[in-house]
Amino acid sequence: MEEKCTAIIELLQSDVNPSDISRSLNCSQMMVYRTKNLFEASGGVKKRMTKEKTVRRSQMVRNVRSAITRNPVRNLSTLAKHYGTSRATILRLVKEDLGAKSRKRSVKHLITQGGKER
Predict the structure, then answer these.
(1) In-domain check, residue 106
(2) Least buried of 17, 18, 95, 108, by fewest C-beta within 10 Å?
(3) CA distance 24 to 31
(4) Entry pTM
């Protein structure tokens, strides 16, 4: 993949049309334009650095852990609204960072006195 990107950059620097490059290298025009824009922005063809995690920081993990220990019945949607994040982020935080499992409360149908007498 990187060889193809370097070939695209060499052909672009020698003033070859992007559509001709895509035909000669058997790749899409979108790849040619993306490689061109990436080269112009960064000066190289390396992939961009990945973004560090911003929401699930240690302070957020501590806050959610304390909220769950205070009230373990509270559902994850309520926690997400309280902290201003998505439900998926809170779920991932609980599963991966805290090592806990989320449970949905279910109603138990208890046996009444009439049922016991039968």
Answers:
(1) no
(2) 108
(3) 13
(4) 0.45
CA torsion sign for 78, 62, 91, 52 is positive
Domain annotation covers residue 90: yes
Task: Tell me the backbone φ, ψ of residue 75, rounded to 5 degrees.
Answer: -85, 165
Place of tokens 């040619």: 32
Question: What's the CA gap between 38 and 90, in Å, rounded?
Answer: 34
Domain that holds residue 34: 2-42
Predicted confidence at residue 52, as pLDDT, reads 59
CATH code of the domain containing 6: 1.10.10
If pLDDT is split at 50, 70 and 90, which confidence band does 28 have? Answer: very high
Joined together, the tokens standing for residue 69 give 């220990």
